[in-house]
Amino acid sequence: MKANFKSFSVYRATSLSKIIILCDHASNYIPKKYNNLGLKRSDVNKHIGWDIGALKVAKKISKNINCSLIHSSFSRLLIDCNRHLKSSGAFIKKSEDIVIPGNKNVSKKEKLLRAKKYYFPYHDQINKVIERKLKDKIVPILVSIHSFTPIYLGESRPWHIGLLQRKDQRLSSIFAKEIKKNKKIVLGINQPYKLDLAGDFTIPFFSESYGLPHVLIEIRQDLLIKNKSINFWSNFISDILNKNYNNDKLNYCLTPSNKISDYYQNKNKL
Asked: Helix/strand/coil (H, E, C) string of the chain?
């Protein structure tokens, strides 16, 4: 393992901005002792190991608008911090057509070890930043940055950007309205994935447990290869956030959902 390794990194932790940028799948790092979970390193470097380009976008947004960024520092193949621990995706055995040998027979002891070292510290840090802002009478706005592969199981995905949402659409509706002004951008709502409790954790748990405004943004990975396009998406998202920073819709918490908290607490007991 890297010297002084932490399962998360934080940028601008003391920022007074309401906005918190999150990046669940920022890294494809797997400690040496796991021997890449039996995979070729070239496979770990593919989209199955992380969200390609997502961290670069997240960092630039954080810098552009001087807001906090919290991101994971380990591969989702080791443990997926955007899944509850009882989900089949938390310790994924097969991604598309690639079998993950190191996850085929993961013991309960090993699952607990990975959760303790990687999964929970990342979430604890998110919780800490949220609590600090609430204590300072700031209603946090959560913006989660992900990326998706342009082809999945042979199917092309036409969307340039996707907005994933559940019941609270205060922020996602603002983004949808702004994105639709650019006729060249193909927008997907709940595409290429649907935001749900079974397949997601970070945004549903933290946003709905506290009643916080939020959005999960998916950007197609082939649009995040060159610096020019990375800058475009970073600036585009930053501009929307800046423009709507004082929007009245985003200045309050909805009633926290105890059902969400209870659901995930049960699902995170191994």
From this structure: CCCCCCCEEEECCCCCCCEEEEECCCCCCCCHHHHHHHCCHHHHCCCCCCCCCHHHHHHHHHHHHCCEEEEECCCCCCCCCCCCCCCCCCCCCEECCEECHHHCCCCHHHHHHHHHHHHHHHHHHHHHHHHHHHHCCCCCEEEEEEEECCEECCEECCCCEEEECCCCCHHHHHHHHHHCCCCCCCEEECCCCCCCCCCCCHHHHHHHHHCCCEEEEEEEHHHCCCHHHHHHHHHHHHHHHHHCCCCHHHCCCCCCCHHHHHHHHHHCCC
End-to-end CA distance of the chain, in Å?
Answer: 25
Per-residue pLDDT at 144 exceeds 60? yes
Instruction: Tell me if 250 sits within 8 A of 74, measured CB to CB.
Output: no
CA angle 54-124-44, nearest 5°?
35
Report pLDDT digits (tens) over 70-114.
999 999 999 999 999 999 999 999 998 899 999 999 999 999 999
- Give this prediction's pTM: 0.96
- Calpha distance 205→260 (Å, rounded): 6
Instruction: Quote the pLDDT of residue 45.
Output: 97
Q: Which two tokens stand for residue 2?
A: 């890297």
225/220 Cα distance (integer angstroms): 10
Look at residue 5 and tell me whether its pLDDT is greater than 90: no
Say which residue the tokens 């945004």 belong to: 203
Q: What would the pLDDT profile of 152-198 be if each residue is shown by its tens digit?
A: 988 999 999 999 999 999 999 999 999 999 999 999 999 999 999 99
